[in-house]
Amino acid sequence: MTGPITAGVDGTDESLAALAWAAREAVRRDTALRVVHAWKHRPDTAPEVADRDAQRAWVGDAVERAVATVTERHPGLAVTTDVLEGHPVQTLLSAAADAELLVLGSRGHGPVVGFLLGSVGQQVIAEAVCPVVLVRAGDKPSSEVAGHEIVVGQQGEPEDSAAALRFAFETAAARGASVRVVRAWSLPPVFAYSPGSLKLLDEAGGLEPFEKKALDDAVRPWRERFPDVHVVEHIEMGSAGQVLLSVAGRAQLMVVGRRAHRTAVGARIGSVAHGVLHHADCPVAVVPHD
């Protein structure tokens, strides 16, 4: 059974934009919408709302008002609401375990790049078992018009990007959109060549034809599975993040794979996903590898 599309809300403009995006996507995919808000009792607030029950009621009312906006726009959409006491990261990760995808708000551009995403969003993206979509405040349905593509990054072997490609093609099929699959490549250092790799390159006719064949091999199964989805295969020399961002202007959604790294201070997402999340104006989906 397909899980719901889950939106995490906290009252900010970003989370309200994420809620609206999640509702539209739930309608397209003919699935339910779950709205989750994580809260913690704050006894140090004003006396009239310091009581736990009073705070819980106040938070619940605020969430219900936000949900009312999407139920008015989408009267046939099945919506459930959960106001859960607990730490935001653990609460959202628990919600993601049963979700088809999790949708969160993302702050806009700022002077300090490393602080745009926030620690909660970064931890959730790095550890969630389902795709996580980040939506900026001001995102509009008009961005989902014909001519705006689903852009997805592909790298490595076909299996390395299979989850991201599947998500991109499923989303495109639901929207009637086209998919632009982007593979960036660069000249490897001389010492990286081995006799085996040199033989493969020679058989392919050079580096660029080799990369084109690698992309075609990765995309072919998804072309066959989604024959009605128009596909553009995009090969370009450069860093993956820069190449993806160079085509972001035509994207209604950017899709990148997630290869999380464990460090002494917790999980961190890869540099490509990190760069796209911070600089792309459109919503970005980060998809964990299978």
From TrEMBL:
Designated name of the protein: Universal stress protein
Classification via InterPro entries: Rossmann-like_a/b/a_fold, Universal_stress_UspA, UspA
Gene3D superfamilies in UniProt: HUPs
Pfam family, one: Usp
Domain annotation UspA: ranges: 1-136, 150-288
Family (UniProt): Belongs to the universal stress protein A family.
Signal peptide: none
